Amino acid sequence: MDKKNALRAGALAAGTTLMMLLMSSPALALTRDDGDDPGTGLSVIETLGLYVLLPIGLFAVIAGLVMALDKSHQKKDPTSSNVRTEADAKA
After folding, report:
1. Alpha-carbon dihedral of residues 4, 5, 7, 12, nearest 10 degrees?
2. What residue ranges in 7-67 does DSSP mark as E strands?
3. In whole angstroms, what is the distance from residue 12 CA to residue 8 CA?
């Protein structure tokens, strides 16, 4: 890609990002909607447990199950048993 196209793509990306930032005003988040009933916030421990420890634990459980139930190490290649490395030729 030449320099002109790269500059054009960068300007388009920057313009799009700027317009999206300007259109989404954070001040609108302060006004409550009808029927809005937010609950209590999460503590730091609850947040870390929910978004850090739980995904790591799920990953460990799934990885452990995959390794425990893996049957590929029991397969043996039948062609490798027919190969002999010693020479039988007698001179």
Report:
1. 140
2. none
3. 6
Query: What separation, in Å, do the N-terminal and C-terminal C-alpha atoms of the chain show?
Result: 67
Integer Cα distance of 25 and 63 in angstroms: 43
What is the pTM assigned to this prediction? 0.46
- Please report which confidence band the pLDDT of residue 8 belongs to, taking 50, 70 and 90 as the band edges: very high
- What's the CA gap between 80 and 83, in Å, rounded? 6
Non-local (6+) Cβ contacts of 1 within 8 A are 9
* Cβ atoms of residues 50 and 42 within 8 Å: yes
